[in-house]
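W.,

You were right to be curious about this one. When I first looked at the sequence I had no strong expectations either way, so I just let the prediction run and decided to look at it fresh. Below is the sequence, 288 residues in total, followed by the output.
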Amino acid sequence: MQIVKTVAAMQRMARRWRQEEASIGLVPTMGFLHAGHLSLVKRARQLVGKKGKVVVSIYVNPTQFGPKEDFSRYPRDFARDAALCEAEGVDAIFAPSDEEMYPAGSDAAFSTYVIEESLSKTMEGASRPTHFRGVTTVVAKLFNIALPDVAVFGAKDFQQAAIVKRMVRDLDFPLRIVVAPTLREPDGLALSSRNKYLEGRLRSQATVLWRCIQTAQARVRENKKPIAISMLKSELRQLVGREPDARLDYVEFFEPETLAPVSEAQAGTHMALAVFIGKTRLIDNAAL
């Protein structure tokens, strides 16, 4: 496994692989890897085959964090991440510096961003106004750097995956986007690097996101007719409110293909929510 730290070196390697007709699979991450990330790596290997190449990018992207978010304390452990990647048979880790990805200086300051203007307006986009501008920009850069045939994203970030797919379609990136299922702890909590912050009683309260999903799914199963979203939101808001350290940021119900909000929930409707557990903000989503 090779560790690559510059754009030029990663592009040279990717071009060489392409000349050798090896398929390239990319798994973009911000590091502090867990079993969910490794499931994406396994999926990438399946997609490119034994003769293909799997690249994992490890980069905590500053442009997708707001000024009051957790960029400076986001968990990092590169040595552990590298060991996990090597054990999974990753061919290369791309681990650039901020200066490499976003050149500064009066003559070469970074000033170009990729902005999706439809799917990014709601949910995470509404709560974190500059977040998706940072996501689409860094992902577009990673596509141009690693030159993948396929990139694998996790379904836990459902809106992000939809926006990346739209960007690839709209801007004619020559690659395929694959969205792999969310992995969960036995009690339903979706795997996330931010789960590291959940100490003491916060960890048990964090299951409220999964309990909200289960409650909404149960209501849809129990009712033969579509359910008013206002009723569902009220019930889920009360459910979150019972946890002393939990605060609901949003819960939304929408069409999975377009992310368009719906007024009634039924089988096939998708839901997503964000909840603060103490100071830690967690997201989750699922089909009803």
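Here's what jumped out at me. The two ends are 41 Å apart (CA to CA). And, maybe more interesting for your project: The first strand starts at residue 2 and ends at 4.

Coffee later to discuss?

I.
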